[in-house]
Amino acid sequence: MIKNLPLKKETNYISEIKRMKKAKNAIILAHYYQTGDIQDLADFIGDSLALSQKAAENDADIILFAGVKFMAETAKILAPGKKVLLPDMNAGCSLADSCRAEDFKKFIDDNPGRTVITYVNTTAEIKALSDISCTSSNAVEIVNSLPPDEKIIFAPDRNLGNYVLNKTGRDIVVWDGTCHVHEEFSLEAIIKLKEENPGAKIIVHPECELPVRMVADFIGSTSALLQFTIKDNAKCYIVATEPGIIHQMKKEMPEKKYIPAPPKDSTCGCSECNFMKLITIEKIYKCLKNEKPEIFVDPDIIKNASKPIKRMIEISKKAGFKQ
Ligand code: 13P
Ligand code: SF4
């Protein structure tokens, strides 16, 4: 019986999680910003796009999401018949919080006649108000898939929105939201690190502010950054995104050096997402054992929110994005 196990060590949790996964036909999906031990335990690791593609296509009865709430909600919207679990309901997202449904409704009314594209980093209610979803991987392709004269609202990340606007030259009105991790990188500290490590390349997530994007050697989503470090020939990288991704970079290319870009100011001195890092192995164990906390989304919201996500997955498939 699981209940009587003397679970003193992390390894006990891990072997029990593996056993329960099999017994319950459950899978663990983990974002690259999770801790290394969770990434190693997961059945599938990915960025936001790959995780939603995987949530839409799998044979499990239970999806345990090692990530944040909007990701688990997206999984529930795409697979309403499955049980979707999130080990800590406080694992929110400052970016999703920066766009509330009643304010966004007014924003849409104030900017009529525009196609509404929202980042998956939004609540289910915001998705239900949208025409197409996007992630940082496919935002440019999603915008370019629309006729050239189509006017667009892009929400909620103003940095990704401005990045897409500059890349596409389209008529886009951008919502003024940000992610507390990506807006906090210190340009001065990045330039200093570059001086100290002359051959290093600066790689940057598009949620970062313009001054940081301007010094980048490469800009891309977490999986694009990972792919870049695999294919590129530099020996050292200054990484301006949540440092969880460095775990995969080290696994893929252990001989290279990866320096996390520092924040302007933070209590921990690092750029970790405090929401992502709420998930632990112990919480995953308890969540899978008790099959809660469980994600529930209102069926009417599911009906409307699934349309923009499915449209995004369809366009991404055509554009050649793989899981
Ligand atoms: P991607 O997974 O699209 O790179 O987005 C990063 C992020 O902030 C997820 O919370
Ligand atoms: Fe949200 Fe930013 Fe954390 Fe991603 S890194 S979950 S966007 S707060």
Structure write-up:
The chain has 323 residues and is an alpha/beta fold. It folds into three domains: 5-91 and 276-296, Rossmann fold (3-Layer(aba) Sandwich); 95-179 and 302-318, 3-Layer(aba) Sandwich (Rossmann fold); 187-260, NadA-like (Rossmann fold). 43% of the residues lie in helices and 15% in strands. The protein has 15 helices and twelve strands. The protein has helices at 10-24, 36-41, 48-56, 69-78, 94-97, 101-110, 124-128, 139-144, 158-168, 187-196, 210-214, 222-231, 246-252, 281-290, 299-318; strands at 26-31, 44-46, 62-66, 83-85, 115-119, 132-134, 152-155, 172-174, 201-204, 218-219, 236-240, 257-260. A four-stranded parallel β-sheet has the order 2-1-3-4, with helices on both faces. A four-stranded parallel β-sheet has the order 6-5-7-8. Helix 1 (10-24) packs parallel to helix 14 and helix 3 (48-56) packs parallel to helix 4. The two termini are 36 Å apart. Bound molecules: 1,3-dihydroxyacetonephosphate and iron/sulfur cluster (SF4). Iron/sulfur cluster binds at residues 33, 68, 93-95, 121, 179-181, 242, 273, 275-276.
